Amino acid sequence: MPKPPEARQRRSLVDRHTAFVAALREAGLPVSVAEGLDAVRAMQVIDLVERESLRAAYAATLVKRPVHRKTFDTLFDLWFPAALGDGAARPGDRPLRRHDPGERRPPAALDPEVQQRRAELFELLLAGDDPGLRQFARTAVAEYGQTPRQESWFSSSVLRTMSPETLMAGLLEAVLTGQDRGGMAEQVARRTFRDRIARFEDLVAAEVRRRIAEDTGVERTARLAVRPPLERLDFGSATRADMAALRREVYPLARRLASRLAQRNRLGRRGRLDFRRTVRASLATGGVPITTHHRPRRPHKPELVILCDASDSVSAFAHFTLLLTFALREQFSKVRAFAFIDATDEITKYFAPGTDVVEAMTRMAEEADLVWITGRSNYGHAIKVFDEKYRDAITSKTSLLILGDARSNYGELSLPILKRMAGTARHAYWLNPEPRRQWDTGDSAASRYGELMPMHECRNLTQLAEFIEELA
Amino acid sequence: MSLSADALFISPEDVAQRLGEVGYLTDDAIATTVYLAQALGKPLLIEGPAGVGKTELAKAVSRAGSAELIRLQCYEGLDEARALYEWNYKKQLLRIQAAPSDQAWDATHDDIFTDEFLLERPLLAAIRRPTTTVLLIDETDKADVEVEGLLLEVLSDFQVTIPELGTLTAVRRPFVVLTSNAARELSEALKRRCLYLHLDYPKPERERDIVLAQVPGIEAELAEQLVRTVNTLRGLEIKKAPSIAETVDWARTLLALGLDELDEAAVARTLGVVLKHVSDQERATKELGLKG
């Protein structure tokens, strides 16, 4: 083990443990005292030198929900880093190349050392050598991760210098022969290498976090590094990858919700007295109705009409909510969906059972007639069109659900029409993906629409799941 | 802890080796967690998608430790009488009717609430076994919430209270494994008492080893190709990603059909083994460029 830098205080394992648990709690993991003690007990029976055993021990005792695992791993890497400083050099490694602050470096493409490193990376990616990749990420960050004046560490500069994506063509070339191109073999190889490159990028990011933590303190870095788990992730700030992950969450979530709803229905209050069965049963007790029998209550299955804003600002949210309601189709007797930007069109047909999620989205975007003039949200006109074309969709049995941010670009609002629609429907709700404090700022008409129907803030999976459960 | 089962395993490496011997390939996390569950005497809750070997892990532990496996399959409406114990009413009734007419009621009463009339159900059976036992509580998420309450006493103190007989405490702590598909969230109280292991789809290397171990006679290269293809399928946005069990099935299918390379035609012919939704198959056909 290398010597720790002097600035670093030696802290006992117990202190480190309690600080780690505190950080987990701060990041939103519910770690009870008993679980903390379990972790300590676990540490007494495993080999602490094995870092992965320690990680497994902590994970088994403290992390009991898969969504928290990513946060846990990030924090674990900070509190129990795999190396200190530049790390222990492995025998046979070449010495690190250090750069003077003032030294001018040639551009990466011309720098022979960079090219040599890229060739090493190429071999590692080709072989899928994980320990090698880890070691490589460490040296790469040590060499290229600092800004010229060495005040901080960045993964972007490492990734720019190494630019692993540009190795893809060569990697594919290396494993595919000519006739495989374009077919399944290429898809599979591409996928494999993409995973490995992503893995490399993760390793670099973790390494950079470790370096920053050494410079500025673990607690501070931890607060900056931790992202909220998927279920609390804001729809508005979701990246493309997050959206894909969210879409993958649709079916498990729908299944969980459905089983919870089914259970609630079963346990739910009993219905009217079944007179005949009660009297019949009372014969066994000499005519005394000791146990009463009841008719099962009719399951409540609302008809759902969803009117959703499909403009770019809220489309991620609207898509996800649509998917979820259609995945929950069994819980509703009928679902009809309409999308609008500044005109409205019915989109139910794109979500027929068994259709593919991604395809439904693209078809909807291509085929549905949502734009009237500008292609910017105009709630007033959209509501008017809906009222003209689909007025009969809303009956006294309907629950009306509007998804949108209520930003009408200062256009008309059609408040009277919406008021009538809300009056006809059995229930009407508005889900707004914006944080509540931004309502009524700028062109938002949140409270004016909010007067007509209850408006809920719905920014993440948890809030959405809660709402759907209440609705069904 | 005097109650802890006399060590099934002595270290995580030992777990990995002995489970490997009975045909279950572990990784670091699995081996360490299984070892900890045994060393700390705590139940092990395993969650993960269907078909990643949750139940199989419990079975492998019982095989490796040559312990008896007692299984409680959970389902909707599972109750105390099915999970814990039940009095054998019919036999009790017979006993009362057969009692000599001069026997006092008290004597009969004492007589019919004895071991002889007790029907052991899995939980009680696991606690009373004097030998090493693995208790598998399968698909815990399918059971109603009340069953969790029932499990709490059994799993934290390893004892069962029967009003007529008193409290029965475990002679020897069983190794308890609970599995769940996460169809619903298990209660915090239950999770707190357990060690937690999330089993996910394995890394390609491990899955390849599994295929090689489970399907004798398959070429290493084909297994490699197969595992990469399955991995690609899992990366698509599909409803039901293929499980390990399905990968193994696929390997068997290819072997049975005598295919020694996994090209487009072979995949198109056998896609039904791994993807069981029409929309998933269509998507895979499109994304992988198969000719349907």
List keywords for this structure.
A: 472 residues; alpha/beta; Rossmann fold; 4 domains; 6-stranded mixed β-sheet; B: 292 residues; two-stranded antiparallel sheet
How do you describe this structure in short?
The complex is a heterodimer of chains A (472) and B (292). Chain A has a 6-stranded mixed beta sheet, sandwiched between helices. Chain A is built from 18 helices and 6 strands.
Low-pLDDT stretches of chain B: 1-5
Mean pLDDT of chain A: 80
Order of adjacent strands in the largest pleated sheet of chain A: 3-2-1-4-5-6
How many angstroms separate the termini of chain B? 61 Å
Describe the structure.
With 472 residues, chain A is an alpha/beta fold. Chain A has four domains: 13-79; 112-218; 241-268 and 300-471, Rossmann fold (3-Layer(aba) Sandwich), CATH 3.40.50; 274-299, no CATH class. In chain A, 50% of the residues lie in helices and 7% in strands. Chain A has helices at residues 13-26, 33-45, 51-62, 69-79, 112-127, 130-144, 155-162, 168-175, 184-216, 218-225, 240-267, 275-282, 315-327, 357-367, 379-390, 415-424, 446-450, 461-471; strands spanning 303-309, 334-340, 344-346, 398-403, 427-432, 455-457. Chain A has a six-stranded mixed sheet, with helices on both faces. In chain A, helix 5 (112-127) runs antiparallel to helix 6 (130-144) and helix 15 packs across helix 16. The radius of gyration of chain A is 29 Å and the shape is globular. The N and C termini of chain A lie far apart (59 Å). Chain B is α/β, with parallel strands linked by helices. Chain B folds into three domains: 12-81 and 124-198, Rossmann fold (3-Layer(aba) Sandwich); 85-120, no CATH class; 204-287. Chain B is 48% helix and 14% strand. Chain B has 14 helices and nine strands. Chain B has helices spanning 12-21, 28-40, 54-64, 80-83, 89-98, 105-112, 122-128, 145-157, 188-193, 204-214, 220-235, 244-257, 264-270, 278-287, and strands at residues 44-47, 68-73, 85-87, 118-120, 133-138, 159-162, 166-169, 175-180, 195-198. In chain B, the strands form three sheets. A five-stranded parallel sheet of chain B has the order 2-5-8-1-9, with helices on both faces. In chain B, a hairpin with a 3-residue loop joins strand 6 (159-162) and strand 7 (166-169). The longest helix of chain B is centred in the C-terminal third of the chain and has 16 residues, at 220-235. The termini of chain B are far apart. In chain B, 39% of the residues are buried. At the A-B interface, helix 2, helix 3, helix 9, helix 11 and helix 14 of A face helix 2, helix 9, strand 9, helix 11 and helix 14 of B.
